Every structure is written in structure tokens, then in C-alpha cells.
Amino acid sequence: MNKWEELGLRLKNFFVTFGENYNYVEYILQFILIAFVFYTVFKLLKFNKSEKFFGVIIFLVLFSGLTFTLSDNLPSADLIIIIAMIALLVFTMYNTELKRNMLDSNIKKNKLESITVSGIELIIEETVRAVQNMSKKDVGALIVLSNENLPEGIIESGTVVNAAITSQMIEAVFYPKAPLHDGAMIIEGNKIYAAGCFLPLAQSENLPKEMGSRHRAALGVTSVASVTAIVVSEETGIISIVKNGAVKKKYADAADIKNALTEYYWSDLSAEGKLI
User: Fold this and answer.
1) Are residues 86 and 134 in the same domain?
2) What is the pTM of this model?
3) 91 and 124: one domain?
4) Exposure of 98 by Cβ count < 10 A (0-12 exposed, 13-18 middle, 19+ buried)?
5) Of the candidates 230, 236, 193, the residue with the CA atom closest to the CA atom of residue 215
6) What are the pLDDT digits (tens) for 151-209?
7) 220 in any annotated domain
């Protein structure tokens, strides 16, 4: 008897004994559990733009079922499938760089692969200069320092710029008559990745009345993501540093802005493994 005949016999025996030993409660619970795991994993993969892993999951399901059918010494196929899906989910959610290299190599390169110490210092100087210039002219601005961990909807609400960070570029984006000046600028590493982005607004009733939409947006986005926001008030020119859903520094000066940027490049990004 070859393997295919043995497989057919096993399948036949499985369906025969299935009708004899059917436990309605057990199989209904297993179905609900598997359906919930599938839904959760697929939803998270889609949110993280990892739809290409759907095929991997289907393959694992078929492989697990086939392996279970051919062997009497393995745990249930349900358990194998759940373990495989959880392992895939963990791989997808926490191995960001490897996932990006596999799936998004043609869309979004690692922005920091060629950055140097002097390059970071130049970026910090350019950003500080731009923020101070806008403050002196009462030009409103909202800059978000991202670790590439913002919800995808925020990026999609704006325009991908993918431009070098210079004071002229930052000021041009927030020029009052520029089309993108009302939204937020997203800085990722050594690039201005997007501009004109709309952020979730903080809804707390305890916020001071003088806080406008930019401050509420900064509080909102830093509440839902581990990012830092630099806000320039259009009414007063006051610079604020916002992090973890709170204003960490109001009336920020050049030293405060530099400290926030230094922490971003040498602490936040280093912790995420994004600096070489």
C-alpha cells in the first residue's frame, strides 16, 4: 500500500469514526476558537499590510491537517494550527525590519541605512532652525517624530513626501498658503516622510482653553503611539514639546528642541534598532 492509498484509508476511517464519536460541544467550541484565532490574526495582518502572509497561513493549515491525518502520535491539528498562527503573528508584529525587507522592499526602504553621526547633527540643527524661524513669524506647525509605528490611516490621510530634512523644506511645508500647512509633518529617521496628515484629537474636557487644534492633535497622537511631537502655536509662536499624551515642555527654547531631537535619534530610534 503506497502513501496515497494509506492517506485515503486514514481519511475514510476518520470520517467513519467521526460520526460514531461525535462530541457536539467539543467540536463547536473548537470551531469557535479556530474562527476567533483566524479573525484576529487576519485582522492584525491586514492592519500591518501583511496580506501576503495569508497564503502562508492557508499552507500551514493544510499542512497541519495533512500531518495530523498521517500520524497518530501528534497533538490535535487544531493545536498545531493555533501554535503556527501565533508564531507567525509574533514574527509579523515584532520582527519589523525583517518583515519590511521581505514584503515592502520596493516601497519603503530603511531610511537610516546611510545616516551618520554628522548627518544626525545636521538634521537636528536644521530642524531647530526651522522651528525657531516659524516661532518668530507666528507660523503654526506640528512635527511628529515617528518610529514608523503610527497607525497607517494617519499616513494615508496626508501626502508622502520622502524628502531630505532641511529648514527650508520644513518652513515651505508650513507656509500659511501651502496646501499641506494645516496637517502634521511626519519625520521618520533622516526623512520628512509625509506632510498634511490628520491626527486624532485629544477629547479631554480638562485641557486648557488656549490649546488649539494642533496641541490637541499632538496630545492625541502621542496618547495612541510612542512618538514625540513639536508644536508651534500660530497665535502666540510658543513652542511646546509633547510626549506620552502630555505637554512635557511649554515655552521650549532651542536647547529644549535639541534635547527632544537628540532623545529621538539616540534613544528612541536606537531602542528600535533603526540606527546603524
Assistant:
1) no
2) 0.59
3) no
4) exposed
5) 230
6) 888 988 999 999 999 999 999 999 999 999 999 999 998 899 999 999 988 876 666 66
7) yes
